Amino acid sequence: MPELPELEALRETLGLRLMDSRPQTVGVWQFALVKTFDPPIEDLVGHAVTGTRRRGKHLLLDFEGDLTVVAHLGIGGRVVLGEEGSKPPRATSLEIPFEAGPIVRVVELGTKKRSSVHLLRTDEVDAHLAFLGIDALSPDLTAERVGALLAMERSQLKGFLTDQHRIAGIGNAYSDEILWEAQLAPLALTSTVDAAAAARLAEAIPLVLRRAIDLARDENYLLVARGDKRGHFKVHRRSGQPCLRCGEPIASVYFAESALEYCPTCQVGGKKYADRRMSRLLR
User: Fold this and answer.
1) Pair type for strands 251-254 and 167-168
2) CATH architecture for residues 134-268
């Protein structure tokens, strides 16, 4: 699923390509994608883009006329930029040709259509996204703030990091990377994290995410109509390969729709998690 680094790089790209440009028309090919009807999505026509923003995993495009598009790319969502006359990808759900810019196409790969587009009045955006926690790149996400959030619930660290109500923007891939960087066990309970470990976690979050943003600026998989081919991870997707810190083979736990990867030595004190759904047992 798209996460903060690739969405932030996408936001930057759209800001450079679309600023001050106006939609010529709006074509909706997958009607379930657009979740709002008032104002209608066609109201974007003729209104210039005034800015691009991001809230967690949500991409925001501001337009003249007090209009804001809020897009969530779900699992298989992509934003493909085409030129006039270019053939749209087969899985195109939404197409917006801009007068002085590219054709913006929202493409949704796979069978699970979980992307969404809302057109809101700009002053409605805060209420629409009020469920989100603090952004993962907020300067206010200090060690003290992380410690306070950890103390608010009793859950596993992996789930804590991916809970958008607590910290917005982190998903399956970068939670693995952050926990490896901080040398914390992914299934450890938040109630067991002391102040020193909370400080390591708070330091690892921006370190991992900013490093990934730099990589996404060079090659962002969200801009192409294909699968996620990222291979720059230090622990995620490296099951069986040696840990880059200690050399121990990376281990995995598989769930229904995802997996977590971790180093048994660096993160779990030399033990391995039993590989069954949401197991808390060690072997």
Assistant:
1) unpaired
2) Orthogonal Bundle (1.10)
Dihedrals φ, ψ of 49, to 5°? -70, 130
Phi and psi, residue 280, nearest 5°: -110, 5
d(CA 24, CA 38): 20
Cα separation values, 225 from 73, 178, 196, 221, Å = 13, 28, 43, 8
Crossing angle of helices 195-218 and 4-18, rounded to 10°? 40
Is 0.90 topped by the overall pTM? Answer: yes
Where are the domains positioned within the chain?
4-128, 134-268
pLDDT in tens, 82-119: 998 899 998 999 999 999 889 999 999 988 888 999 99
157: left (phi over 0), alpha (psi -120 to 50) or beta: alpha
DSSP 209-259: HHHHHHHHHH--GGGSSS-------SSTT-TTSBPTTT-PBPEEEE-SS-E
- The CATH class, in words, for 4-128 is alpha beta
Question: What is the torsional sign of CA 262, 237, 116, 13?
Answer: positive
